[in-house]
Amino acid sequence: MAFSPALARLIDAFRVLPGVGAKSAQRMAFHLLQGERAGGAKLATALAEAVEHIQHCQRCRMFTESDYCEICRNERRDATRVCVVESPADVMALEQNTDFRGHYFVLMGRLSPIDGIGPEELGLNILRARLADGPVEELILAVGATVEGEATAQYVAELAERYGASVTRIAQGVPVGGELEYVDAGTLSQAFSGRRPL
Amino acid sequence: MAFSPALARLIDAFRVLPGVGAKSAQRMAFHLLQGERAGGAKLATALAEAVEHIQHCQRCRMFTESDYCEICRNERRDATRVCVVESPADVMALEQNTDFRGHYFVLMGRLSPIDGIGPEELGLNILRARLADGPVEELILAVGATVEGEATAQYVAELAERYGASVTRIAQGVPVGGELEYVDAGTLSQAFSGRRPL
Asked: Where is the Toprim domain (chains A, B) (predicted)?
């Protein structure tokens, strides 16, 4: 099927992207070659630069090409509030949808001893150093409500409390706009027991 | 939202791909940075090389990094049979699913005067030169059964007949595995009037 070795290599290389199989990879390659060569060249440059230069922020583990990410370097942000999330995508989502202007700490995963992911792999030694170092007044847990997320939340909460930070967790309950009838049993039971005075 | 200018550039660059919006672009960028840096670097290289070197075959207009594509250069293929298709993806599909071992001619589009796409834009002067040049015994039309595809087929057929090639067209009818009940009216009427003796 190799009409052109360069084309075959390009189609094959596209399959590294999440959710991209043989058909989509071919479609992407032809799309770029047919009318988006400038865009393709731009993507090649951005990609080469990103995989070479983007590392983890030494303070919060977010992606950055500097030693510290823009949030950690921004002195107008409140360093006494640290929001702990599982992934860089979570940081993006919170920045876009909340007015939180503190700092983050990105675990890049969650505790999963069965996969060999312990506190070390999640950079919790860095978080510990930070808790020891400066005053963290509130540590906000914004990890997923999965089994591993719960275990991670528990672990981080104990760590933070040891250093005198007060720990909060983002609310669990019925999604906004959700009809009770279609909410799953676990969420409904959580939401009911977590009811609050109006 | 720029935590890292390099990351912002990468996410933006991914949006050139077909069907990739802001969310998918972000997912692709994080996926590569989190665990597929080698694959990302390979993609960057393949892409840079492809947009720089891949051109159209001078004989059939298929993508190739040489002057002539591998099919046109392959002397074991039958140059007296030329299959005319709309796009490089059609060549791939026919190669994968048929035993056709002749040559191709890729229009890279179809006649559409309203969009300024005439015979010149489809490289029909190249096809004409080829018909004049060597003996083409059978010209197979494998263009889509759309209005513009029909117009294109008509035009190419007349051109080929002028040079003495016999013209065939791939069959239209009920798809294999299709139930009559769910076949659209146009296809069913075509299939019925195009019935063949068993």
From this structure: 80-175
Interface predicted TM-score (ipTM): 0.83
Query: Are A182 and A150 contacting, i.e. CB atoms less than 8 angstroms apart?
Result: no
Nearest to A6 among B43, B65, B96 (CB): B65
The CATH number of B5-53 is which of 1.10.8.420, 3.40.50.40, 3.30.420.40, 1.10.3720.10?
1.10.8.420
Architecture of the A76-169 domain: 3-Layer(aba) Sandwich (3.40)
Per the CB < 8 Å rule, is B6 touching A34? no
- B122-172 pLDDT, tens digit per residue, is 999 999 999 998 889 999 999 988 888 999 999 999 999 999 999 999 988
Residue B44 CA to residue B40 CA, distance in Å, equals 6
Q: Touching check for A64 and chain B: CB below 8 Å?
A: yes
Tell me which chain B residue has its CA closest to the CA of residue A33: B51
What is the four-CA torsion angle of B23, B28, B31, B32, rounded to 10 degrees? Answer: -150
Measure in Å the smallest separation between the Cα of B162 and chain A Cα atoms: 30
Q: Which of A65, A8, A10 is nearest to A40 (CA)?
A: A10
Contact between chains at B63 and A37 (C-beta distance less than 8 A): no
| pLDDT number for residue A2 | 54
State which amino acid sits at residue A68.
Y
Is B65 touching A (CB cutoff 8 A)? Answer: yes
The third-level CATH classification (topology) of the domain covering B78-169 is Dna Topoisomerase Vi A Subunit; Chain: A, domain 2 (3.40.1360)
3 state DSSP class of B187 = helix
Is the pLDDT at A82 greater than 90? The verdict is yes
- For A121, the token pair is 């792999």
* Average per-residue pLDDT for chain B: 90
Helices (DSSP H) in B54-184: which residue ranges? 70-73, 88-97, 124-133, 147-162
Domain boundaries, chain B: 5-53, 78-169
pLDDT tens for residues B53-97? 999 999 999 999 999 999 999 999 999 999 999 999 999 999 988
Tell whether B37 is within 8 A of chain A (Cβ): yes
Residue A170 tokens, joined: 């983002």
